[in-house]
Structure formats: C-alpha cells, structure tokens
Design brief:
Strand content: 5-15%
EC number: 2.8.1.2
Organism: Roseisalinus antarcticus
Number of helices: 10
Largest sheet: 5 strands, parallel
Shape: globular
Distance between the termini: 37 Å
Enzyme class: transferase
Structural class: alpha/beta
Radius of gyration: 19 Å
Protein name: 3-mercaptopyruvate sulfurtransferase
GO molecular function, one term: thiosulfate-cyanide sulfurtransferase activity
Number of domains: 2
C-alpha cells in the first residue's frame, strides 16, 4: 500500500500530540441531491474534533451541463483556502461514504500532494468510540492556496471516443452492475442507460471491507479484483462511473497496486449518456 492512507489510530495520535501542526482534517461527506439531505447537518451533529467541512458542490463547476465536474483552479483554491488550507498544509480527508477519493484526486490534480485519506473514514472512527465534537466548524483564518493544474490527469470525451473506437487503453466503470448493464435507469433524468464499448464493470463497492471496518481492501486483494475482472494493467487505464466521483476510487486503488498510468473521465456517464452519437450498449448487445 502507498502512503496515501492514514489509519484512525495514527490520526488520533497526531491530533493529541501535534495539535498546532499545519494540518487540516477535512470532512467531505456528501449526498446525492435527490436524497434531499445535506451532509453539513451530519457534520454539525458530530465530526472529528477540529475538522472542517467542504461541500462537493462548492468545488465543482457550477456552469457545466454535467454534474460534479472539475472546477476552475480559482474556484477550487478559494474553497480550500477558506477551509484554512495553504500550499504547505497537510490535508486528511474523510467522509461517511465514498467521496474521499474524489477529493484526494482533486487535490493532486491541482498540484497538492500533501493529502491522505482516513482509512475507514467517519464510520470506523465512530465504531471505535473515538471522540467527536458537534456544532459548526471552528473559525480558522483563510489561507492562500495556489492551484496548479497537473496535465494528463483528466480524460476528455474526445479521448473516450477514440479509445472506444480504436483501443489504446482499458476502460473500467465503477457503477453497479445493474446500472452498467442497463437493467435499471442511469440515475439521471433524461440520461440513457448502458455502458461504453469495451468498458469493464468494476463496481467501487468491491474495494471496501464490510462494516464496521469500512477500510479499503489490501493492495493484493485489489490486484486480484482487477485481474479477475479482466483489467489489462500493462498500459493506460481510464476510470469512469456515473459522474466522476466513484471513478476516483478505482484510480485510488490502481495507485495502491502501483499502477500510476491512469486518467479519470470527468464527464463519465452523465456526459456520455447525453450525447446523441455516442455508442451505448446494454447487457446482451455484442
């Protein structure tokens, strides 16, 4: 495993022994809009002591026709700077679901590599009976953060058009089998169901241990999952999902097994499924 993870024991020790370090624990919990819930309410009810909160909507492109798209560097920098994060700050992200890998990828794509994911997240922290605090995040001074986009981290729809037609990279899709196969709706009104030609369904849930652990599986187990699914890791890999969030989990696990040659298709199925001329297969098609 790489050093992109931090265990709950280690975080608890850091919070106790280095309370004044340039470190931000960042709660990025998030709900799909159709649930009618907002994770800030959960944060106020209980969070890791000293944590700050960031809303995925605030660090996504508000002008895009597609959901959860990468924002401008300026928008990202403004949001994380308001959370007290500067370019030298160590960031530890956690959530109560599946969003942490998206933040990990966004920070790295904007040139900030001092970022780790709390393994097991909020649910493991709570299951272990560790301390919580309630109420809003503590007031912190704004920091200057300069976002420097790193080239080659984001795959465009043009790249996916080329790969689905001509090959050149493995495509792995993190959605559930039912959504991938077109057996249930895409989850987005007006967006067709199905999958891209050549894509390999690799549901993100496979990479987490069951409750009450909730940690990522080991690198060896992740490698077996990719191999069992038939993912060719001898060359480039493109990760995709419904809106670019859980695709980050696949990318994170590729990094864990030592495969750094991957990109994330940010538009994912929300973009692909709305195009009139993109091929969309369903189970049973050849």
């Amino acid at each position: 495993m790489t050093d992109w993870l931090i265990e709950t024991d280690d975080l608890a020790t850091l919070l106790e022994t280095e309370p004044d370090a340039d470190r931000v624990v960042l709660d990025c919990s998030w709900y799909l809009p159709e649930t009618g819930k907002h994770a800030i309410e959960d944060f106020r009810a209980g969070h890791i002591p000293g944590a700050r909160f960031i809303d995925l909507a605030d660090i996504s492109d508000p002008e895009s026709d597609y959901v959860n798209m990468m924002p401008s560097p300026e928008r990202f920098a403004d949001a994380v700077g308001a959370a007290g994060i500067g370019n030298g700050t160590e960031v530890i992200v956690y959530d109560a679901g599946y969003v942490s890998a998206r933040l990990w990828w966004m920070f790295r794509t904007f040139g900030h590599n001092r970022v780790r994911i709390l393994n097991g997240g909020y649910r493991k922290w709570v299951a272990e009976g560790r301390p919580l605090e309630d109420g809003p995040a503590r007031d912190v001074p704004r920091q200057d953060f300069v976002a420097g986009p790193v080239e080659g981290r984001v795959a465009s729809i043009e790249t996916l058009r080329d790969v689905t037609a001509n090959g050149g990279a493995a495509i792995i899709d993190a959605r559930t089998a039912a959504k991938f196969d077109g057996l249930e709706g895409s989850g987005y009104p007006g967006v067709a169901s199905g999958y891209m030609p050549g894509a390999i369904n690799t549901p993100w849930q496979l990479f987490f241990r069951p409750a009450p652990d909730h940690r990522f599986v080991s690198a060896d187990e992740a490698r077996r999952i990719f191999e069992d699914r038939g993912v060719d890791m001898s060359g480039p890999v493109i990760t995709t999902c419904g809106s670019g969030v859980t695709a980050s989990i696949l990318g994170f696990m590729l990094e864990q097994v030592g495969h750094a040659d991957w990109t994330l298709y940010d538009g994912s199925w929300h973009e692909w499924g709305q195009q009139p001329d993109t091929p969309k297969l369903v189970k049973g098609d050849t």
